Amino acid sequence: MKTEDTIGQETKATAKASAENAAAAIERFMETRESYIRALETTIEMLKTKVGMHEKTESDIKQSLDEMIAMQRLANTISTATDPVSVFDSLLDLTRQVVPVAESMIFEVESSGSRTKPFLSTCSDRMLNASQHLLEEGILDWVIAQKKTTVVPDLNTSVGEAGDRNFVVVPLVLRNKAIGVYIIHTEKMRKAFSDYELMLLGILANQAAVAIENLSNIERLINAAEELKKSQSQMLQAAKLASVGELAGGIAHEINNPLQILLGHIALLQQGKDVEHRIEIVKSQVQRIAQITKQLVSFSRSVPEELQHELINVNWAIKEIITLVDYQFKNRGIDFDLRFSEEIPPLDSNKNYLQQAFLNLLINAKDAMPDGGKMLISTEFVGGNVNIRFTDTGTGIKKENLSKIFEPFFTTKEPGKGTGLGLPITRGIVRKFGGELKVESIEGRGTTFTIALPVQVGGSKRNGGIN
Fold this sequence. Notes:
Largest sheet: 5 strands, antiparallel
CATH class of the domain at 309-467: Alpha Beta
Oligomer: single chain
Order of helices and strands: HHEEHHEEEHHEHEEHEEHEE
Radius of gyration: 46 Å
Strand order of the largest sheet: 2-1-5-4-3
Distance between the termini: 138 Å
């Protein structure tokens, strides 16, 4: 049986063991806690590093995208340039923002495949020789076929010459087809080029390809416009000469009448009868012949390619044309009824062109009145326009033909008596001066053509050609 002392000793021993165990457990916990903290700190540092790297990568990507967008916007200035020198200068300026440039030039490989053709005539001999060498080595063909930028060492660098010189050969790609190459001579080391830089150079070269096509299209349009102007002038001149041919009989009569009068009075002059009076008559008849001849020559002269503008008195311009057709109208039994306003301001126009338009309308009116009639011509100034009306009492135009009369080569006249160009040419002339030509007709009762020409300052409403 244990004594109280024995029990006390056991209790103390148990308490001591428990305290030692607790102390060991606490020590182990502290060690574990410190290890955990250290591991946690390491993890945090790793995460911080990864976050920093992610932020840097994101920043780099954002910066690269911003640079690419800015470069693309700047590159657009290449494609909008309007002449070869501006295209190349813009391309060169932007290229220097990507790589250092000693020299550069755009080249086209000729269809024969044996020579290169520089974009500008100012290309240096060095670049021309380099392009030819790269062609002969097959490098240009490879770049064009693969549509891939490549960096080629300059093997002609002199011994002792500073720097590692290279040629960057960039394809000019348009609609997935390479149309040439952009060769850059640079001191940038080959291994220093990044894919990003090569991509930027590709963007610039492609914009240059767009610009080159635009320049080619502009040149073709200019050539086509010049050919069209020549064709229009030839067509108008042909119409004028055809009109003169149709008027020839009337002109001959207009000249023959005063000639007969001249012969009679000259005979009387030779007899010494009433000399002074006869001289005045002779003078007036000669002036009449001279005026008719002058008007005919003025009207039939060649139309200049460049339209010359002058101030025109419309009423006088119409009267001059009537002089040329008066006999034929009277011979057909057609009377003129002229109702000209005296308030008509002068037109900034071209008399030769306008008189051709007036004559075309008069000839059409004469042909529409085979049994005679009345030709009413009136002028007025209304709402900023000079309105000129030609009204005949002829056969009129069928309703179904009203929409066709301004179509080239459409005619209702008998074969051989009309080309179908008179009215299209007339409308083109009127539109050339910013005006409009309208028609009203009732079959069997007559037709009215109205020319409305704006009174303009500086030609702000003019069209560029005859349409």
